[in-house]
Design a protein that fits this description.
The structure is a homodimer.
Chain A: H1 2-10, H2 22-32, H3 39-50, H4 56-76, E1 86-87, E2 90-91, H5 93-96, H6 99-116, H7 126-140, H8 145-154, H9 162-187, H10 192-219, H11 222-225, H12 231-234, H13 240-244, H14 246-264, H15 272-283
Antiparallel strand pairs in A: 1-2
InterPro entries (chains A, B): Isoprenoid_synthase_dom_sf (IPR008949), Polyprenyl_synt (IPR000092), Polyprenyl_synt_CS (IPR033749), Prenyl_diphosphate_synthase (IPR053378)
GO molecular function, one term (chains A, B): prenyltransferase activity
Family (chains A, B): Belongs to the FPP/GGPP synthase family.
């Protein structure tokens, strides 16, 4: 993953004979090349491989998704949003640079994602690339990630029902994880039924990811996660762990893990890496 | 233009069964439906009409470009950037709402643009819609508008050569105006030579727009423009007017106007609306 991210950043396309401002490039690299888990691009690649596709075009689509994820972290970390100084154990972009640069670096990464996803190697059929582009926009936009972040910020100031929490989480983190799995299947020309199956797998991954994240916030220390913890409760943010407690949340996670495994059962041994990913997501401690 | 912007905002597509957060929708509407000049979408539409196309698909592509323009204004107005309280005589988005909402509204508008530009009615050929999508990303990204804004922020802290100023302006405001004209020609299946001609026309419009803007900043009152003026000099921002003076700038504007008119001469009477637009841009007082 890292070489593709590096080269797409280094070769960030220009409008005409214009230049790449070095400070903006540096901030974008700081945001992207920070050794994240690369969960979303790995999902794209593993799902595509499940259906027999594994090449640079898949990597490019996966990188587009990672750019979207990284932009969202840069903007979420801003003082006006979650106000985080630390991300993956390093200073956040607005701390390493400044706020204006962080806003622009996020904007430029979001924009670059829509260049990468349209690249010729992504899929030979322009119509498929258009679908991938449009669905990426919807997963990231007002009905997806950006809308979820808005609901999350609002939830600091008022109580939320379980359904409201589930909706905001499906939007804020679920939409991109769902897209990752769906995109992998579309990239590899999977049959419609299989696209639906992997889409559902992505939704389960999204739910499990959020539950595990909420558990981590309650249980882990800042040392393990490399970021500040216990912030949800301090900020008055409603979570499912807060509503149902740690034990019930662990039980729900186990159920999701079983559902994920059952969904991929028809693919036999080939699905092992994806099932291991689902396990990792449910049980991660960072 | 307004009904299309309204309906694309109202029908902002959802990822799945998710919701549109009302506060984010309101902030996006505040940013877009504020009675701007609509210069970029009008250029798209007038150029497409020059080559005989005039329908809802053109309007949708034009709206995508306006969303990009409006997102950039919302982010540029933020305290960490240009710190403007007033835009078109109304409170800026972060003043009417708050900073976090303004950041997210900008992000969501940028994202929505890439949904709109991929819409089926934009062009019957998916390959053309992909080109329009990719070029929109490049005009808006690190080698275009976002990169230009970075250079502009940096120019507050050090002197810039004439070439540097021209590059930053070609990126910050030029790239989208160039794209507007180019997209209009591509939408209407203009021949390659005509696409190049209209691309050059867009570049001239971009130069003229920036020179007229710099002149306005020096000359106009806050009353006429509906925004704070004299800010460039106060911020120590280098402009071509600052380098060459008002008279030389007026002379360059007249030359650009003549070049724009000459470029469209082969189209005869049909090009009149575009030539009038070029004149308006060169001579506007707000």
């Amino acid at each position: 993953m890292e070489p593709v991210l590096e080269s797409l950043l280094a070769d960030a396309p220009l409008s005409q004979e214009n230049e790449r401002p070095p400070r903006l490039m540096a901030a974008m690299r700081h945001a992207v090349l920070a050794g994240g888990k690369r969960l979303r691009p790995i999902l794209v690649m593993e799902v595509a491989e499940l259906f027999g596709r594994q090449d640079d075009g898949v990597l490019t689509a996966a990188a587009a998704l990672e750019f979207i994820h990284c932009y969202s972290l840069v903007h979420d970390d801003l003082p006006a949003m979650d106000d985080d100084d630390l991300r993956r154990g390093r200073p956040t972009v607005h701390k390493a640079f400044d706020e204006a640069t962080a806003i622009l670096a996020g904007d430029a990464l979001l924009t670059l994602a829509f260049d990468a996803i349209t690249a010729d190697p992504v899929h030979e059929d322009p119509a498929v690339r258009l679908v991938l582009t449009r669905e990426l926009s919807r997963a990231a936009g007002i009905g997806g990630m950006a809308g979820g972040q808005m609901l999350d910020l609002e939830s600091e100031s008022r109580a939320r029902s379980e359904q409201e929490i589930r909706t905001l989480q499906a939007m804020k983190t679920g939409a991109l994880l769902r897209y990752a799995c769906r995109a992998g299947a579309l990239l590899a020309n999977a049959h419609e039924g299989d696209v639906d199956r992997l889409t559902r797998f992505g939704e389960i991954i999204g739910l499990a990811f959020q539950l595990a994240d909420d558990l981590l916030d309650v249980e882990a220390s800042a040392e393990t996660t490399g970021k500040a913890t216990g912030k949800d409760a301090a900020a008055g943010k409603a979570t499912l762990v807060g509503l149902h407690g740690v034990d019930a949340t662990r039980a729900e996670l186990a159920k999701l893990q079983a559902e994920a495994t059952a969904l991929l059962q028809p693919f036999g041994e080939k699905a092992k890496p994806l099932i291991e990913l689902a396990d990792f997501i449910s049980n991660r401690n960072h």
